[in-house]
């Protein structure tokens, strides 16, 4: 049996070779430890330490993920910092300048963390990134508490 010019038994293997593979995980700092923020405006978070960047769709210089293919993608963020009565930990996953989902934590002491995830249909060239809320701050060190990850689930 044939599917076009490809034997049916070979068709799944042939088509799996043409599918784009996209996945990344990054954390805030490449080295050291640092408290970042607060800022008085929305500020893009640039995750410098890249653990995985299959497909090179995440840019550690800008903090932007740019969709290389039309498809359904899943993204997650994890944020945290030392508690402070006046400064929360807050960040939003943004698609093409539009806020999608946010993570937020405010506690007066101790270490607090939050996270969120979202599944999005993206077109080629759509941009996803993470943005601080005004007055927010985060802390990171070699334990890599603050992360941004995403991967292509399937193409459309």
UniProtKB/TrEMBL annotation:
What does the entry list under GO cellular component? extracellular region
One Pfam family recorded for the sequence = C1q
Residue stretches making up the C1q domain: 17-156
Q: What is the protein's major site of localization?
A: secreted
Where in the cell does this protein reside?
A: Secreted
Keywords of the record:
Secreted, Signal
- Show the Gene3D superfamilies listed in the entry: 2.60.120.40
- The name under which this protein is listed is C1q domain-containing protein
């Amino acid at each position: 049996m044939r599917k076009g010019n490809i034997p049916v038994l070979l068709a799944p293997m042939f088509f799996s070779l043409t599918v784009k593979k996209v996945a990344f995980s990054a954390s805030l700092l490449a080295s050291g430890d640092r408290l970042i923020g607060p800022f008085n405006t929305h500020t893009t978070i640039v995750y410098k330490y890249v653990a995985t960047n299959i497909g090179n769709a995440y840019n550690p210089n800008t903090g932007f993920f740019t969709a290389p293919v039309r498809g359904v993608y899943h993204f997650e963020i994890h944020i945290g910092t030392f508690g402070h009565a006046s400064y929360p930990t807050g960040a939003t996953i943004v698609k093409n300048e539009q806020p999608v989902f946010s993570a937020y934590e405010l506690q007066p002491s101790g270490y607090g963390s939050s996270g969120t995830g979202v599944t999005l249909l993206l077109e080629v060239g759509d941009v996803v990134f993470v943005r601080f809320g005004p007055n927010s701050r985060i802390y990171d060190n070699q334990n890599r508490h603050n992360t941004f990850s995403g991967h292509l689930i399937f193409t459309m």
